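User: Can you predict the 3D structure for this chain?
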Amino acid sequence: MYRQLRLILVLALVVLFAGGCKKWFEDEELTLPKTPYTGEELRTDGYYYYTMNGEYFRTITFFYKNGVAFRPPSGSHSLQEVDEYVINELVGENRFHDSQLSWELYNVENDRILFNYWVPTRPFQCYFQEGTILNDTTFVLQRYYRMENGEVTDEGNANETFHFRQFSPKPDSTNIFIP
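Assistant: Here is the predicted structure, written as structure tokens:
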């Protein structure tokens, strides 16, 4: 009798935990409204890159007119190698197309740019990054932060200058994470 009661209790706990587990481990949703980009503050016919020490890129970003941005995993390469990477890895059979961390929303208002993106935690949390647009080929990201219950938390400074590089073809902007 004691064994049966214990087995029932264990099974009940497993069912209870499994049923509520999804809620505990659910990724946060981006909260920036998806807004089509119709302005001319930034160019969308290529990609923006962030350099470190003036020689190598660390991050590339594609902007799309539907308000979606794509930041695939990147590293340190010459711009020619970046172009080859885009053609070989991102256009057509994009192996990062199904990577939630590569997709973001962005919004431009006058000379300000705001991104809303996921960070690699489990579950994924959402952060914001904002900066200033200097001209249609350059913007500087200056600050990042997280919003929790309407309050800014985990705030930090950045100083990342992105430069434009005209490039075609671009990866497709359709993805399963931002409809």
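The chain has a mean pLDDT of 83. The longest strand covers residues 151-166.
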